[in-house]
Write a structure and sequence with these properties.
By secondary structure, the protein is α/β, with parallel strands linked by helices. It contains 11 helices and 7 strands. The protein has one domain: Rossmann fold. The site of S-adenosylmethionine has 22 residues, from helix 1, helix 4 and strand 2.
Length: 289
């Protein structure tokens, strides 16, 4: 099937990044294919990854705050584990879209395996060029994917269009310090890794930017919460695991092909200059809507 994509697009780069053997192997080996960070309580072992992943997904469900049966769009669903948790635990009817056909196929398999396919549907699409009619969803969410967008304004416009008036948008996304307010090695690291990992919007999302764009797209911003410290234990584990191979890749001049390993090490080293944020916003009701 031909994928309908938006005009301003880096779709090819995103697909290439997720198809890299290093990327596929890393996510598969460490997180069983899930592609987001975990959230920890202070008493948790940093190595209890699965528990932390599910807790982060529960935070999504709690922030969406929808009744069972609500129609929800997962933009950039990956292999569908977030959608699976939201259906299984919160009773939401989730439709996930993703650029990679392999992710969509895996998401469908996992839904069937969990006996949740009555609540879960998936399609191979670009969230910047959605086919759904206006006001199709009660809520929309992104989990660590909007950073890939080539045109975040266009994506937010799509989310606004497909949400019903009063509907909720929740985005778990990264934001960073302005380049002028960090040391040169940190600024260089962001520029390089955001390029290699096809994350132009992370390069652009300095503190406050996503909040401003969300408001400009017509949403009422309810809040932005910095939960970085709750995810640091997992990032630190990845940095510890990646330190030795990262040095090897560097020495062998294979940096570009080991972007996940390098990201773990470098994003941990420079953690003072970026945040993991939860953005919550509602589509404003207009008179008569
Ligand atoms: C870091 S992964 C997160 C996956 C999933 N949300 C999770 O938490 O496991 C980012 C995902 O967004 C998808 N993605 C990136 N840009 C997209 C776009 N324009 N449309 C649909 N999916 C996109 C990627 O294919 C990838 O599966």
């Amino acid at each position: 099937m031909v994928l309908k994509v938006s005009n301003a697009s880096n779709v090819r780069e995103v697909i290439r990044y997720y198809r890299q053997p290093g990327s596929r192997l890393g996510y598969r080996l460490f997180l069983n294919g899930t592609k987001h960070f975990g959230f920890y309580r202070s008493t948790d072992s940093p190595w209890a990854w699965s528990k932390a992943l599910r807790r982060m997904e529960d935070r999504m469900g709690e922030t969406l705050a929808q009744p069972a049966g609500a129609r929800v769009l997962d933009a950039g669903c990956g292999v569908g584990d977030v959608a699976g948790r939201l259906a299984g635990r919160f009773g939401l009817r989730v439709h996930g879209v993703d650029l990679l056909d392999a992710h969509v196929a895996q998401a469908r398999r996992r839904a069937r395996r969990r006996n949740l396919d009555h609540l879960l549907t998936f399609s191979h699409s670009d969230y910047a060029a959605l086919d759904f009619p206006d006001e199709s969803f009660d809520a929309v969410y992104t989990m660590e994917t909007l950073v890939h967008a080539a045109d975040a304004e266009a994506v937010l416009k799509q989310f606004h269009r497909v949400l019903r008036p009063g509907g909720r948008l929740v985005m778990f996304e990264y934001a960073r310090e302005a380049a002028t307010r960090m040391p040169t090695p940190a600024a260089d690291m962001f520029r390089q890794l955001n390029d290699w990992a096809a994350m132009p919007s992370f390069q652009r999302f300095t503190y406050g930017t996503l909040e401003r764009l969300t408001a400009e797209a017509g949403f009422s911003v309810r809040g932005v919460e910095d939960i970085s410290r709750g995810m640091w234990p997992m990032l630190r584990c990845f940095a510890v695991i990646g330190t030795l191979p990262g040095a090897g890749f560097r020495a062998a001049r294979l940096r570009r092909h080991s972007v996940n390993t390098l990201s773990a090490v470098e994003f941990w080293r420079h953690r003072a200059f970026w945040r993991y944020e939860i953005h919550t916003a509602d589509k404003v009701r207009t008179a008569g809507s």
